[in-house]
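lol forgot to send this yesterday, sorry. struct tokens for the thing we talked abt
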């Protein structure tokens, strides 16, 4: 037996917090009865329906998207701004949601799925899934400054794990540089904060890769479904 909100989250219906809201607002039925009490436990034999759709009827979906700027990487937005779900239009009937987030002004690789177990494992620190970012920063970082990132840097209330980082190009006239950084954590605004801490604020940020997945020929706003072998490789990385 597991808590209903946990089952909903693992099934890819929504995040744990959003699932709790769905329950308390009467959108979830268990065996035909509306359930509004958090902490309700269910088993694999119970029929769970959300907004009239049985959660067990959804086939697993795995999507790789090139997130553009000015798009929110959530399922919905209380300010009514455009979200990544708008980019899927009516081509995906299943209830997918983003695996982690990218900032409003950050572009690049974003995964979406309704496979809650895979999503949870991909974002769990235990599996150290690498993400590579390319940033345009103010100023030109010195090797000594980058060494602090390579050895783990204190950022706000947490110490970031050691990251791979290097300057790939520099414009001395404009006093800017392009920095490549690979991390395996996913703290809020982490890359921006790490570079800000060494004195080089980020002007532009793009996630080039998520694990072995890259954008390929996708353009901003475009997406594709993952190939079966890609899904298999991701699951292997998180021991599924």
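and heres what i got for the seq, position by position
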């Amino acid at each position: 037996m597991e808590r209903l909100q946990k089952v909903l989250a693992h099934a890819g219906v929504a995040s744990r917090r959003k699932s709790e809201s769905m329950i308390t607002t009467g959108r979830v039925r268990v065996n035909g009865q509306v359930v509004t009490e958090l902490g309700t436990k269910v088993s694999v034999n119970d029929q769970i329906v959300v907004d009239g759709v049985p959660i067990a009827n959804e086939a697993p979906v795995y999507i790789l998207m090139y997130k553009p700027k000015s798009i929110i990487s959530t399922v919905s937005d209380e300010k009514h701004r455009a979200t990544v779900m708008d980019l899927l239009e009516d081509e995906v009937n299943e209830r997918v949601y983003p695996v982690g987030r990218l900032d409003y002004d950050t572009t690049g690789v974003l995964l979406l799925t309704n496979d809650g177990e895979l999503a949870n494992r991909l974002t769990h620190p235990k599996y150290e899934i690498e993400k590579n970012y390319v940033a345009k920063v103010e100023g030109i970082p010195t090797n000594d400054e980058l060494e602090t990132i390579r050895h783990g840097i204190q950022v706000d209330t947490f110490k970031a794990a050691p990251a791979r980082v290097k300057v790939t190009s520099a414009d001395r006239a404009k006093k800017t540089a392009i920095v490549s950084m690979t991390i395996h954590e996913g703290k809020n605004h982490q890359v921006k904060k790490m570079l800000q801490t060494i004195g080089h604020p980020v002007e532009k940020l793009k996630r080039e890769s998520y694990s072995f997945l890259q954008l390929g020929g996708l353009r901003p706003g475009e997406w594709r479904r993952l190939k079966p072998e890609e899904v298999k490789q991701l699951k292997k990385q998180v021991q599924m």
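The chain has a mean pLDDT of 91. anyway ping me if u want another try
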